[in-house]
Predict the 3D structure of the following.
Amino acid sequence: MSAEALRLAVDNARPVGLAEEVNGGFKIIHRGKHAGIYQEVERRGDDGRVSKVWARIGSHLEVLAETRNSAGEAWGRWLAIRDRDGTTHLWAMPMEMLGGDTTELRRELLRRGFVPEPGRKAREALEAYIMSWPCSRRMRCVERLGWHGPIFVLPDATFGPAADETVAQLPGGPPPFAVKGSLDGWKQEIAQLARGNDRLVFGISAALAGPLLHLAGEDSGGFNLKGGSSTGKTTVLRCAATVWGFPVHSWRVTGNGIEAVAAAANDTALIMDELGQVDGRDADAIGYLLGNGTGKTRARRDGTARPTASWRLIFLSSGEIGLADKIGETGRRARAGQLVRMVDIPADAGAGMGAFQDLHGHETPAAFADALRLAAEEHTGHAGRAFIAELTKKDPATLAETIREADAIWNAKHVPNGCDGQVRRVAGRFALVATAGELAAELGILPWPKGHAAKAAARCFQDWLVDRGGTDPYEIKAGLAQVRAFLEAHGTSRFEPAWETPNERPIINRVGFRKLEDGTWTYLVLPEAWRSEVCKGFDPAMIARAMRERKWLRPGDGKNLSVQARVPGVGKIRVLQIEATFLEGDTT
């Protein structure tokens, strides 16, 4: 149901032309200078006689329907509050807000423009009115935004079949999905300027990909634009945020705080700026948390479990460093699962203008960024709604098949053969972004030619692969880098040159031996040192096999990864023999 349709429902909830309604000791006056809600009370006159009069308890507020979830729980009331400008605000109020001191209820009503009469009696009367006013209409309420079967729910609008029977009833209050300007203005001043700029096209397409996760059966995941300051990263995020009108959030947040923000953006897009602001320990947890889609299980005071926050979304981030570097500040090492859930894309598009490639007539990248910033402040929140309005007109099964086929075509064209499963998993997310952009362009929401979004996604995917260092599993890439760093740091101090005479300096904490062959050093690592130090934190056998496949480790006999060597002064022992070519250039 659109916002306009919801407002029409207010007029349809009462008989045509009805000026006032009276029920159970309460009265609603709908129009005129006396519009508002009243309670019938007894008053004693100067002559001692008692009469009944109508006492005003607040401005115009209607109870349109009763709400409850599909399990017959979470009951509430669907309210219409008319503010002093004459604007009607619709709100699904949980009945649980009438428990306790009702402070939160009054706060939410005041925020929407309701004007109560002062005093305890008026406050109590307001609570009684909301609780007791009879309603013949029942509606289904949902406590989370996003997909619910074939319908899609936003705080103030519902899309899809039977949308007029479903409404969002959010215990913590509705998240801020702003709507300003117009869709045509957004197309002209933001989407049109994004053309020819891979990062901008990708960011807008990624924001539109959130609703496709559910349809495609994919998990949450995200992208981090990594690069120096003043490269246009924040501009890309601002433009992406205009798709839904959900604000750009700061990374300066704890793991607990990010749960609430992520749940509020369910099935849309979460935009977060400046990764460098988050504490490295929180970044370690958030890297998994956002991608997993579920928060921590917490207990109520009585020991029972609270409902666990959950979400399914695309998240976009920016930072001068990547997630692995941020986690590394704490002395920890990022795990493959984290770096699959959030991948780093270089913010610099390689055209000498930071994240931009086409300034569309603006003199400088700064002037172009300013134009986009001003446009983002003027036009926001329309593209995502228009996209959902079109998606919910289609058969869900057919739409899901269309998405899967488009993803498969993109993957077949852009993903290298024989790459690791981690790369394929990330490539699937890039493919979904490409599909979202292409689908939105086909539906007329994005003013881009066919193939434009797919091309931008392919460019960003290739730049990620280059920055990552290839298509090998992250554990192998990082493990090889660690072995190389160990040899560079300790090649002369912890490897004994047993074949050189005389050996004047004793080796402390020896991990192996080194041998000069054709002017370069070959390193022979003792098996226990290989496991406990050189490959610490990794699977030592996996790293050894990877080095053997690349001819950086001398093959042993049979299935052995180690070889036998006769070391002067030691005798015949088994070692892992690293060839001199290992240190010649990049180990990836």
